[in-house]
Amino acid sequence: MSERIAHRRRYLMCRPEHFTVSYSINPWMEPANPTDTALAVAQWQKLYDTYLELGHQVELIDPLPGYPDMVYTANGGFVIDGVAYGPEFRYVERQGEAPAFIDWFRDNGFDTRVPEEVNEGEGDFLLAGDVILAGTGFRSTGDSHAEVARIFDREVVSLMLVDPRFYHLDTAIAILDPVVEDGAEPGIAYLPHAFDDASRAELERRFPSAILVSDEDGAVFGLNSASDGRNVIISPRAKGFEAQLRERGYNPITVDLSELLLGGGGIKCCTLELRSAAGEHGGAQ
Ligand code: ARG
After folding, report:
1. Cα–Cα distance between 177 and 207 in angstroms, integer?
2. What's the mean pLDDT when you consider all of the chain?
3. Distance from the CA of 94 to the center of ligand 1, in angstroms?
4. Number of domains observed in the structure of the chain
5. Which among 69, 169, 225 is the best mutation to test ligand 1's pocket, defined by most ligand atoms within 8 Å of the CB?
6. Domain that holds residue 236
7. Residue 225 domain-assigned (yes or no)
8. Distances (CA, A) of 126 to 79, 140, 225
9. Do the domain assignments include residue 106?
10. pLDDT score of 279
């Protein structure tokens, strides 16, 4: 097997200074259970440090008081080639985050598009090679898929999520190869039963070599991971997925975000990829 190549990534993160669980908009969130903000920050810091150690660039957006879910920056937009499509959150509890993300993109030189449709950014939109995989069923609407197809002028594959525990696409699919040669099948991993039959058939057809993860690994947010093409940051609880990654020549690195899981989010949720216009940043390491 040829050596997997790490590609330098640029990410947007948000320190969970105001993290808590004060409302419930997914089955993981139980406001009656206590949360430990200092522990959330310490676990998040480990993820941040790991990215820097791997040579990635991490930008930060200021956390807003009263928005405990802002740490999940994956929901703050979807960015390809320097074009940033902003979020429009489904639930009122998070709607005040949207202007902050949109302002951040504008202030940082992105070609920023304000959405008309309800969408939760890279939580539901994943770039797999040239194609955008788009989740719906719980958060982002089908109309947002059409909006994304228009804005990025790419093929969008709509996938229907059916299990409320896996309410964002990034809890049910991981993109393992962020950079792929023309026409090659991008490495992905997914949880088959998170999808309806038609979506599962579509995934099987397009990604015959995909890693299928077990329910056990899916249920500990094993798929909610970040890959640079070689190093894959995953939850330490996803033991089976860790072995599957090793078999395929990836280098799994574990980071425990147990406290952030109380809000229904993991590694990928805390990470928004900033794909710059061609020629800027990025490249093999
Ligand atoms: N509590 C947040 C919500 O329900 C968690 C978001 C997780 N983000 C993700 N990309 N899956 O919106």
Report:
1. 12
2. 96
3. 10
4. 1
5. 69
6. 10-273
7. yes
8. 10, 13, 12
9. yes
10. 56
